[in-house]
Amino acid sequence: MSLAVMSALSLICLDAAATARAPLPAPPTEATMAAASVAMAAATAQTESAAPETTLETTAPETTKVDAEPAPLPEAQDLAVEGVAGDPLVFAEESDKAVADKLIAYIENIDTLQGDFTQVAPSGAVSEGKFYLRRPGLLRFEYEPPQPLLIVANGGMVYVHDDALDTTDSYPVGKTPLKFLLGKKIDRDDAKIVAVDRGVDNVAVTFASEDEETEGDLTLIASAPDLVLRRWIVRDLQGGITVVTLDNIVAGKRLANRLFAAPEAGGRFLDR
């Protein structure tokens, strides 16, 4: 499998290279989460300075590398705690369980989302594209050139198509933390809540699976108090962190069945 495909699998919560069942690393520390945030900001700034402002439809972004050594990290800040020091945190008076329940209820009630995404891989490489989500079970990621990848989740499987190699690989959703986002309901017996963090205008909940076959964990970050999914973080079994930020989000719009056709199926895939 190509390195490009493996990078894509990090995005959608897969780590096909992690065949050894090592114990899951400890949850991300504030410093680790802040490093990912700094990497995201640095990558955005570097991309903006390298080319004039364009739309995703007209100009393909270039893959960018972020320095391996991040800038000094602000104290007491991570991806979930953003804003001016001293500002009140959302849901500050509510328990972690109550905050997690709010986010879970929001996720379970999502019908459709679509918009743009920016991915920062563990290596610092930046990719962009468009995403389409229809719950339960359906997801599509279209990468902008030069990344030759298309990712589709459907029927309990994730399909990764590499246009350059003309290959398609598939993997069970249930073996990835992506199941927490795509399942009709979040299985409370399986989903272990590792951490709940509050920011001045967002909240983050980190999920890990009780099933040892699930590879890695997933942090979902939503704006608050009006919850809208804004970002997720995937941490693989080796501790690598992939950050996916969502922009220009449109909720509730009808999405065509053809968007979720398995790449090798062609033509009509769903009959609904």
UniProtKB/TrEMBL annotation:
Pfam families: LolA (PF03548)
Span list, region Disordered: 44-68
Keyword Zinc found: no
InterPro entries: LolA/LolB/LppX, OM_lipoprot_carrier_LolA-like
Biased composition (Low complexity): 44-63
Signal peptide (residue range): 1-22
Protein name as it appears in the record: Outer membrane lipoprotein carrier protein LolA
